[in-house]
Amino acid sequence: MDVRKYEAIIRIAEEGTVSAAAEVLGYSQAGVTQMLNSAEQEMGLKVFERTNKGAKLTEEGKRLLPLFRQIVNCQENIDQETAKLRGLEVGTVRIAGYSSIVINWIPRILTVFSKEHPGIDVWVTDCNVQGEALQRLRDGLIDIAFCKITEDVELYGEGFIKDKYLISMAEGNPLAKKQKISMKDLEMQNLLTETQGLLPDLDDDELPGVTEMSKRTHYSSTLLGSLQNMVKNDIGVSFSSELMNRVLDGEGVISRPLDQDLCRTLGYYVRSKNEMSYAAAEFIKCAKKVIRTMYADDPDHEVLFDA
Fold first, then answer.
1. In this structure, which topology does domain 161-264 adopt according to CATH?
2. Were 247 and a residue from 20, 138, 155, 224 both cysteine, which residue would form a disulfide, CB within 3.0 to 4.6 Å?
3. Where are the alpha helices (DSSP H) in 175-294?
4. Domain coordinates of the chain in residue numbers?
């Protein structure tokens, strides 16, 4: 089957309608509809249920979609390798990462990467939950996930730096007078987070009581600028990390460490070290070079990977 038909099915599943998929793919709606009908006819089964509200995957479609993504990813890898053999560079790298990483690391990496590899496109989305980012990676929606690195993940991951947890607050907040913040200090504070009902990648094994604390989240916003203004106006305190606080800290906002030395390892995951596309491998190589430069003169952060 023509790989474009698989691409059309994937886009329809992601966008929810044929018209939206056609717009993303740059085809007419009639053209995408024809590709879908032809694909279903070749397979002898329905992939979507069409309604007035859009297109919904059938049970058969749900089972086949990951395989379609594998086929499309393989074709992209073939295109990249053949172009490389001809002395050309083409391809696409799809990335998801924490907002703090997307804001602080990715622009600097892209500045270097776009000059070294002008023929490779990069798609970036933010995703503030490790499990969600890794599931996108498993499903073939992205090529690289930048997030917290843990030992219980079957994917290939590599750490970049240790990122300490902090508490951000307004300068006028009573906690600002303290040098370190305890869990008890937070009992009377409104909690602000990036993701509703979640504190950043912590569990009770790392910080006893954090699960119960997460239930007391009063406000959340995926927009770090909005979160910063809520902290600045003393609506609550933000349970965050050093990297995130590079965005949150500013006039009227200060940060304090916890009374427990807690940190997370930030880095990247890919599905397989040995089966990465050329474009993804080059992006990671570039990322390492940029991260090493960023933290070269920072005594508080040791780069975790080898040269």
1. D-Maltodextrin-Binding Protein; domain 2 (3.40.190)
2. 224
3. 210-214, 224-232, 242-248, 278-294
4. 3-71, 72-159+267-294, 161-264
Three-class SS state of 187: coil
Fold agreement (72-159+267-294, 161-264): yes
The one-digit pLDDT tens for each residue of the chain (307 residues) are 888 888 899 989 988 899 998 888 888 888 898 889 998 899 999 999 988 888 889 999 899 998 888 888 888 878 877 877 666 677 889 999 988 899 899 999 999 999 999 989 999 998 877 888 999 898 888 999 999 998 888 999 999 999 988 888 899 999 999 999 888 888 778 877 765 444 556 555 566 655 565 555 555 555 566 777 888 888 888 877 888 877 666 678 888 888 887 888 999 999 998 888 888 999 999 999 999 999 988 888 889 988 6
Instruction: Give the C-alpha separation, 168 to 232, whole Å.
Output: 9
The predicted model scores a pTM of 0.72
Phi-psi region of 275 (alpha: psi -120 to 50; beta: other; left: phi over 0): alpha
- Containing 273, the helix (H) or strand (E) segment is none
131/142 Cα distance (integer angstroms): 13
Residues 230, 227: Cα–Cα separation, whole Å: 5
Q: Which of 165, 254, 150 is nearest to 207 (CA)?
A: 165
Contact assessment for residue 135 and residue 147, using Cβ atoms and an 8 Å cutoff: no
83 contacts 90 by C-beta, under 8 angstroms: yes
Q: What are phi and psi of 219, to 5 degrees?
A: -140, 145
Give Cα 171 distance to the centre of its chain: 31
* CATH T-level fold of 3-71: Arc Repressor Mutant, subunit A (1.10.10)
**Class of domain 72-159+267-294 (CATH, top level):** alpha beta
Closest CA to 231 of 244, 214, 215: 244
